[in-house]
Write a structure and sequence with these properties.
123 residues, Arc Repressor Mutant, subunit A, two-stranded parallel sheet, two-stranded antiparallel ribbon, 7 helices, globular
């Protein structure tokens, strides 16, 4: 079986983010063992709208909780509306209570049974 592309690995992680929680481009990059490639994760999110499968890209924000990718959702308010629909409060393009809502894949997926990423990130 051929190895998954970087974008596909990103999409697999993003699909695991629970409703009402958010993560960052950098957290995904670090989980994939490619610290410093947060921008590539952003590119994957920008391309997510072309994917057939539902990818909740609106749950991925920058390290400060800012909705930096909001212009890639077909309107400047769509990302905010999607997050607010999941119970997340946004003020001036920033997630309120970001620290409480932050979903860290390094922690949350540490014991995820049989997940293909677990084997690729153990040191």
């Amino acid at each position: 079986m051929p190895e998954k592309s970087f974008f596909d690995k990103v999409y697999d992680i993003v699909r695991l983010i629970p409703v009402g929680r958010v993560t960052t481009y950098g957290a995904i990059a670090e989980y994939l063992g490619t610290r410093g490639s947060a921008r590539m994760v952003g590119w994957a999110m920008n391309s997510a709208h072309t994917e057939i499968n539902n990818i909740p890209a609106h749950r991925v924000v920058n390290r400060s909780g800012l909705l930096t990718g909001k212009h890639h959702f077909g309107g400047s308010m769509v990302m905010q509306q999607l997050l607010e629909g999941e119970g997340i409060e946004i003020v001036e393009d920033k997630i309120v209570r970001f620290g409480e809502l932050f979903w860290d894949p390094l922690i949350e997926l540490k014991s995820f049974p049989g997940h293909w990423l677990k084997e690729n990130t153990e040191k």
